[in-house]
Structure formats: structure tokens, C-alpha cells
Design brief:
The complex is a heterotrimer of chains A (328), B (312) and C (501). Chain A has a domain of 226 residues. Helices cover 73% and strands 1% of the residues of chain A. In chain A, a hairpin with a 2-residue loop joins strand 1 and strand 2. In chain A, helix 3 packs parallel to helix 8 and helix 3 crosses helix 12. The two termini of chain A are 30 Å apart. In chain B, helix 4 runs antiparallel to helix 5 and helix 4 runs antiparallel to helix 9. Chain C has 501 residues and is an alpha/beta fold. Chain C folds into 3 domains: 235 residues, 3-Layer(aba) Sandwich (Rossmann fold); 173 residues, 3-Layer(aba) Sandwich (Rossmann fold), CATH 3.40.50; 72 residues, no CATH class. Chain C is 33% helix and 26% strand. Chain C is built from 17 helices and 24 strands. Classes of the chains: A mainly alpha (328), B mainly alpha (312), C alpha/beta (501).
Amino acid sequence: MSTSVESKQGWRLRRPSLRVFRLQFAVLGAIAGVLLLASIVAPGFLEVGHLLNVARQVSSLAIVTTGQVFVIATGGLDLSNGMVITLVTVVSATLLDGRDTYLVPVILLCLSIGVGVGLVNGLLVTKLRIPPLIGTLGMFGILRGIAYVYTSGAPKGAAPESLKMLGNGHLGIIPLAVICAAIFVPLGAAFLNKTTFGRRLFVIGANRRTAYLSGIRVDRTIILAYMFSGFSAAVAGLIVAGYIGVGSLSAGNDYNMNSIAAAVIGGTALIGGTGSVTGGAAGALFLGLVVSLLRFLGLSYSAQLIVQGVILAFAVFAQTQAGPERSS
Amino acid sequence: MIGLGFLGKAANTVFLLGLIVVAAVIEPTILNERALRNILTSANPLMIVAAGQALAMLTGGIDLSVASVMSLANVIAASAMQKSPEYAALIVLGCVLAGIGVGALNGWLVSYVRLNPFIITLAIGMAVQGLTLEIMNVPSGLVTSGFRLLARTAFGPVPVATIVIGAAFVVLATLLRQTPHGVAIFAIGGNEASARMSGLPTRRLKLAVYAASGMLSACAGLFLASRVGSGDPLIGDPYSMDSITAAVLGGTSLIGGVINLAGALVASVLLALINTLLNLKGISPFFQWIVKGAILIAALSLDLLRHQRRSS
Amino acid sequence: MADDFLEFRDVSKSFRGTPAVDHVSMAVPRGHIRAILGENGAGKSTLIKMLCGVYAPDSGEILLEGRRVNNLAPASALRTGIVAIYQEFNLVPQLTVAQNIFLGRFPTRWGRIDNAESKRRSLAILDSLGIPIDPDRPVADLNVAEQQTVEIAKALSHDLKVLVMDEPTAALKDAEIAALFTVIRSLRARGVCILYISHRMSEIFALADSVSVLKDGRHVGTRGVSEVDRDTLVRMMIGRELANYYPAKATQVGDVVLAAKDLRLRNTLDIESLQVRRGEIVGITGLEGQGQRELVRALCGAIALDTGEVRLDGNRLDLSSPSATIAAGVGFIPDDRKGEGLALVRSCGENIALESLDQRRRAGIFIDGRKERTFIGRMIEALHIRLASSQQPAMDLSGGNQQKLVLAKVLGIGPKVLIMAEPTRGIDVGAKREIYNIMRDLTARGVGILMTSGELPEIIGMSDRVLVIARGRVAAELDGAAATEENIMQAAILESVGAPA
């Protein structure tokens, strides 16, 4: 145990902590497993065009999950991001009404909505010290009400061409949405893993007291994490708006739980202190592949749900085999 | 304090009761017999699941499968009773057992396999919802007229079911605070390692708690079947989050070790009351969501400000 | 050996090939207080865990009253009368005292808990210990000393034969320690065999009947307390002479680097003036709870004062938050390294880099990986931190090495002043000495250190100036020859709350 061994070895800082590392491998393995299964039971599934389609649908989830990972890493949770997506779709559809004229201002508005919601969430959690589960749940309800009141229950308008391009269009054979995610996710990962901000997020989740005494501005950092989550939801919302073409009051419905599920599958522990953006994106891809395969196989919606639930349960179980996690 | 019997944190409950009084003052029409009966009837299912959710939270966990278990029991009852009305009682028993079964599965996964309750009850809930939709795709089914009486009988403004639920609450609270196993459940939520070191069968108890929550969800689903008269596979949808809301509003802590059954009961009534009030005032259901979300946040921040809990 | 009450016979236990306990044989009579002494990693906790049923020995036997007890499950060990009290209490905060004492073994009547009976029995036990606590109070409302009493009462509620206490006085005030000793002695009078694990020599000499020393998993020897002195024990523990236990004091002290005036916090602090000079170590001591903790936290910005002005190098120090004081150059080592000094699940390297992240940035927000690795390596070497890899989670390290992690973290900011609260609490002798040397290295470089400690020998050995705090005030300032245990205690007691006349 002498120090000279350490200094000769050089620094293995590049290697991530063992558990997260194993879990990321596990998710990739799971994805490979699904693809393998598909090759056996559903030959058409593996066709490139189809896979890219799946990737397109998964892109928005991957982007939202990125933000969710940030929040979960601090030991919190964001249950309002699905509603941000919904709100963004109805706001953009209503204001743009199929025309590109005010595209940039409206996009900025939508992004501000996401950031604003995140700011409120962050304030609720830090200044009012409301547990994140409840606080973001309350926001979810409030946002839902706002969305319904804003549209009086019947969303009007439509998404303009440019957003539709974003949601449905391609660059060559690669969907634009995938490119968007392919830029957003690595940036998010770099943001979390390689910046001082990200490092501080993890410490806050690991031990808030230590973070405070070590000079971290805890409240501010947490608020920024929620703001980023809201921002990711807004970005995803724009893609979804383009994809469905209209405003929809149910657009964001599944994103809350799915983003949490994807994050957890990808190795982010719900108690905080650890997390992986790329794992989250992989988790999103896994979930998307599973859903898509089931649909491809012609399973009814109800059967899909059953299989999804079972697979999610297994995924979580598999995580416990990947390595010890600290007990909560 | 635990020893004080089922009133628990009296202050919180009193606060909620105060809100009810305020509401009554704002809109005295709710004080008439029919309105009260409606309010209590609509609060009944929430009261039932809020109790189950509070139990799960007491152990430091959570149950996100509440909605789907409710729906499951609901559709099984409606479709089975339609086909074989003579077996109504047996069917009811079957639904309750189904609820216990799902709950026990949750409990096993959380307690023995040691999976995170949030995700695993979510996953099981998803699967159960799929199962429910397989059984019944769109609202249909018919319950027996005898069964329908369950939800509809009342003594003046107070539905029989509410009385039963109230009595059940008292029994549950007594069991929790006065029996060795009950206190053991508190210990699990407070410090599970210590509880185990003291030789308590923590794993078995945790499983039992989730089984109880499942059973209660099934009962709530049955109640709704009785009230509506038919089945609806999505009927339980709002109840997962609402049960969490009612439990937390009533003073049960998300971290575990603290439960307030009376508070959960009162909070459920309060939420039902607010719904009715807003409906009466002609406020659109959309605004109701905003109001409910705001109330949740406001009630929690008041609670925190009162306790002057300083940040670490 | 017929009357040996508790006996370890050739007990061994290895983890992954490394022996933690190596053929230990030891016997303790009934009604006896045996202190167990040894450096961290010497095998104390493994030995105890085998006794309590957490581990099973690989070989050898543990006998209690002649009966084998080495393969019991923890719950069975409890029933046999073997109870351990650790620093992390085994209590459920939300339950009452009585409920905690009888958890899992409630007296019942017709299925219901007989509250009256459990209250009566709890009172009986607590009275026999001479400590009045209301059995109906929730444990969360009790202070640390009271909670410990409840733990002891809980132990007594079993048919107690062997009581193991692990660093029981770490968080207690002096008066409470005295009360605890009384209780322990009364247990001894009842025939209980007490194993007392502690690093505090003065306590061992005050309380124990005999001392067993463990080193590297082996039993070095057992001596009656009257047969040994501190130096002998230390020699047994670390196997070498420990001359010059404390490094030399400062010979050259610079000018004032930290000057505090009018530090007032209602009912807690009332300090007119306090100064730390470059190159000196100021030791703050006194009876527990006289304001030392608050003083230290106020100076680092974690607690708000009613009034107070602090100047660092002549400039007004912003005390609004730790981030402000850290930015100015004040480093703080908290007394609870696990709970407040480290993020245990994160890697050692991350912990070390934590406070000085902003110094190694690229493009504003990104961490410069190479600079960070170099920095971490440098700190690990400089402080002789023993770890397998900087990637290890901090929780893997021993207490002494964890404290060095905290030190490394704080030193990263290049502090002008270092505020250290209980710097060597719960750390073994060898590691203590390393930390003392590090402290003197720092002062040689011009850092001013303010430290609080409840260990008088440490205060006397390390401080260039001693400030005795009583009732939030500076009761005495002692240096040089005047800093003796006697003078310190006199000043501390004279002015303190509830001091005996």
C-alpha cells in the first residue's frame, strides 16, 4: 500500500467507476439482445430504414432523458418534463399556425418555457424545500391545467414546415431528429462528466452537506439542473411538435415515466450521486426498440404494455447484478 | 407521537380540517345532505388507496401500481359479474385476492430481490395495466344490482362505505401503533438495519405492506365498479398520483418512518371537496388541475415553514 | 482458565487471502472492563464482529461461559447476551425510548403491546443506570448522550453478559463521559464483561482494568492497567519507539493573518478578539459544547453570526457562505469527515479535486483532465494517502486516510488559514502522527492553523497558543509552559455552564 506504486501506475482517471461502467455495458448488451431477438422473430425489423425510423422516434426521449439524468444525479426527480413537451407542442402549433414567419421567436419562447418551468421546479425544491417528487408533480398538474386552459381543451393550429422537417425530415438517410439527438446527448454527457458544474452536481447528490461545506453553491447548482431538464424537455417538445404536426394535449404523456425508466436502466441511481447521460440515451434506445419490436410483431397495445412492464422489471433486476450500489 | 393513537400529527390534520371549514364557509351549499353524500362518495376510493400508499411510504417505499390494480379489480368484477352474476360474492373475493397477489409480487421484488420500489412498482403497474386492457378494451361490463348497493347506500349524508372505511382506518391505525408487528413496520421505515438487527422479520413485513396496498387498491377498484355500475379499464388512472398527493398532504413522509392515517383520510376528503367546489362554481376541470397542483405545493411549503426545518 | 468468562481461542479470519485476525487468543474474566487498543486495520472490529455473529471465524473458537458462541447469527448472539454498541446507533428515531428498548420483544397482552408494562420495565432499567429519561419520548428528540444511554438500556434489556463499546465517547461532552463511566462501572459490578474499544489513552487508564493490544491482526499482549504506561502501550501498538510524538513547535511566527473581532452569537458566542498568525497553530479547547463548534463554523461561513468582523490579511472576510470563505483562502476541515467532509460514493480523486475545481479549467467550464490528474497525484504523494487507486470510492479508505483526503481537498485551494475541527478524532496513533507532521509542514510554509480538540494532550502537544473557551468566551490564553492540563481544565471549568464548584 505504498504511494510509490500509485505514482508509477499513472492515473486511471479515464476509467469510470466500475458500477456505472458495467451497467453501460449491460444496456448495450440488452440492446444487442433485442436486435438479435428481432433478427430471429421479425426479419423486416432490422432493415436499415426501419431502424432509423425507430431511432427517430427515440430521439426525443433520449433528449428528455439527458435532462432527467442531470436532475436525478442531484438526488431529485423531474415529473413535469412530459407536460413541458405537451405545452411546447400546443404553444408552437397555436402561435405558428403552420407558418414559418415567427419561427425563431416562437422557438425561443418554447425554450424559455422549458427553462422557466425548470426554474420554478428548482426554486420549489431548494427554497421551499419541497420534495422533488411532490414539487414536480404539482408542477405537472399546474402545467396540464395551463395547457388545457390555453387551448380550451381543443388544440388549434399546426406545426410549420420547418418543424415538420425537424420531426420527420432526413439528411440523406439519417433522420434530422436523430442528428439532433446525436448532437444534444454527447453535449449533455460532456456537460455532466467533464465540467466543474457536472462534478458539483454529483457531489450534491452524494452528500449535500459536504457539497455545501466544500464551497459549492448548492441551491444555484440544483436550480440549474432543473432548468437544464426543462430545456431538454422543450427541445424534445419541438421535435415532437414537428413529428405529430399539430398541438396535442397528450403529446408528452409517457415521457415522465419513460425518461425516469430510461435513466435508471442506463445506470443512474435514483438516490443520486451517480449518473450517465449516454447510459440514459442507451436506455431510451432500448425502451424504444422494445416497444417498436412489439408493435412490429403486431402485439396489441395491451400486450405491449405487459411485455414492456416485464422487461423494465428485468432491466432493473439486471442492474442489481451489475455491481453493488450503496444502500439508501 | 406514536403513542398518541391514531391522531398522529394532530397539527397537520387540524390544518386540513380548517381548510374544509373555509371551503364550507365559501360555499355553504355543500353543506346540504346530497352534496355531502356526493363528496364523501367520491372521496371513498381515494381514501382507500391513500391508506395503502401511506403504508408503503411508511416503509420508505412507494406504490405506483395503485392505478392499474384498481382498474384490474374493476374490470374483472364488471366482466365476471356480467357473465355470472350468481357468483358475485366469489368474484369480489377473487378480485381482492388478485390485488393481494399483485401486491405480494411487488413486495417480494422490493423486499427480497431488493429492487427500487419506484421503478419496480411502475413496471409491474405497466404490466398489470396491459393485462387489464386485455380483459376489457373499452368500458363495458355490468355489476349485479346487489353489488351496486355497496357504494350507494347511505345514512343521510354519510355513505355506509365511508363508515366502513373510517372503521377500517381505526383498526389499521390501532394495529400499526399497538401491535408488535405494527411497530416493527415503523421501525423498518425508520432504520431498517436496526430493525433487522433486533431480530424483526423485516422482509416479510415489507412484503405484507405491499400486499396490503395491493389489496386496498383492489377494494377501491371494486368500490368504483359498484358506484359506476360497469367496468372501465382506465378508471384507476389518476389514483396513483392522487394517492401520493393525499398521503403526503395528510402528513405521511416520503422518506419513511412517519405516517398519518387520519391526515390521509382528511386530505382525501379535502381533495374531493375541492373538486366538488370547483365544479359547483363552474370552474372548468382544466383549472382544477392548476388549483390542485397549487394547493399541493402551498400546503407543503406551509408545512415546512411551520416546522422551521433548516437546510443542512 | 476455568473461570474465564469470555474466551477467544486461536481465532482467525481472512478476507480475500489477507488475514484480518491472525490466531488471536484472549481471555476476559467476568465483571471486568477490558480495553482493546490497536491501530486501524489491527483487527479490532473484525474480532468484535465475529463475537457478535456478523462474521464466522475461519478457524478457532469463541467461548462464553464455556459454551461455544462463534457461529451464531446476530440475533442469536443478542439472545445469548452479547451486545455491541457502535458509533452509529442502532436506534429507530421515530419510535419512543421504550419502543426502541423492546423492539421485537414487546410485552404483549392479547396481541396488543402492553405499553404500561414496557414503560415500567424501561423505567426500571433506566433507573438502575441512574439516568432519568422519559420512556415515552421519541428517540429523535434525544441528544447523543441520551441516545447512547438508550442503547445501553437496550443492551441491558437482554440478559447482558458481554457489552462491546466502540469509541463510545467520541461525541460526548465531559460531564456525559463521566456519567457513562459510572454506568459502565455499575455494569461491571453486575458481572458484565465489557470490551471497550478506544483510541483515547486517558480514558483507558481512567476506566479499564486491563488492556489488550492488537497489531496486524495479532494479539500482542494483555496487561493490567496499573502495569503499563502510555509509552509502553504505544510501543506495543506500533512496534517501535515513538519518541517525539508531537513535532516541534513553531519557532518563527509571522504576522497576523486572521483577525476576528466581536464575534457574537446569542447564547453561544461572545468573543471580543481572536487572532491567528502565519506559521502558528492556535488550539481551541474547553469543555464540550462551550461554543467551539459554532466558532469554527462561523469562521468558515457555515453559521451566521449576530455580529462579527473578520479580516483575512487585512481584508474584510465575507462570512456569508463557505464558498465565500473558501474563495478568500480559508480552509475548513469539519469534525465529521464522513458526513460533512467527503462524498463517500465518489472517487478519492474527485474528492481531492473538489474544492479547487475552478483552478484547473479549460475553456471556462471544462475540467482540465491532465492538470487534475497531476494535482491528485501530487496530493496523494505529499500526504502519503494509502489507496489502491484514485478511482476507488472514498468510502473504501480507513479513517486516517479519509481524513487525509479531506486535507488534500482543502489544501488544494492554497489556504492562508486552515480551520481544523477535531482533526484526529477516531484516527489511530500512526495516522495521527502523520497528520501532525503535515500540520507542521504547513505552518512552516506560512499557513496559520486554528484547531479545536477535546484531547488535551493533543492540544498541548500541537498548539503554539491555547485558547480555552468557556460559555462562548475566551476564558484563558495560555502558551509555552503555562499550557498545562491543569491550567486548561481550571480555566475551562471555572467559567463553564453547570460546572461543579
